[in-house]
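Pilot study result, target chain (174 residues):
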Amino acid sequence: VSEPTKETPAPWWSKAASTWKRDPNLEAVKPVLPARSDPAPDFRATDIEGEQIDLRRLRGKCVLVNFWGTWCGFCREEAPILAKLRREYGPRGLEVVGLALSEKSPDLHKRYVRDNKLAYLHALATPKILEDYGDIHEVPVTFLIDREGRVRYQWEGDRDEESFRAALDRVMRG
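Predicted structure:
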């Protein structure tokens, strides 16, 4: 299966988008710049390797925090995209943190991450983290945090690779 690109989006996106009526007046409208700049709630979590993830220690990097679950179809489609973004943008200062919720067991979560080569930080979300980030119950939900620790974007529901790239390019410019 080839990776989706701007020219060849994911099959589910192409199928859904083909049914939407397009307003020609909106074709030239640029994506929305970040409107948020509130401090991201700090958190600490133990990753699947037993190491601490501390959001404060990631200051100076842009951080994509993705709330997800191995049981969530949209999350499973999005996870390889996040791993790809981490590979490509990591040298420029991006970190990706996947915080899983409602997993049947930590071992199954760990195995899923390893089997699918999801090379970014992974931990189980604690009730406090879920509450601090808006009482999250449904996934995926993703936050883009800038180098100063401010939330710049929040997405509820799945996103395509180009949406993430556009936001990363804007936020990582500075």
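One observation from the pilot: Strands lie at 38-39, 44-46, 52-54, 62-68, 94-100, 121-124, 141-145, 150-156. A full batch analysis is planned for the follow-on phase.
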